[in-house]
Design brief:
2 helices; mainly alpha; 52% helix
Length: 67
Amino acid sequence: MDTNTPNGNSKWTVYNFPFPKEDLNATVQAKAVEIANELYLAGEPVGDALIKKAVSKAEEWFLEMEG
């Protein structure tokens, strides 16, 4: 999986984030990008693990939000 590492001050967006699933809800996509950027800025190494963690946390957030 290509992680499209953010360079310098740039951040991932929903347009350049390497989503592992094509069928993610747009709200989950936006939250995954937000979480991934936070993890990256906190020093988490960029790679598949960061991407999967961000998407997983976004899916959990969405399910909790739905009730």
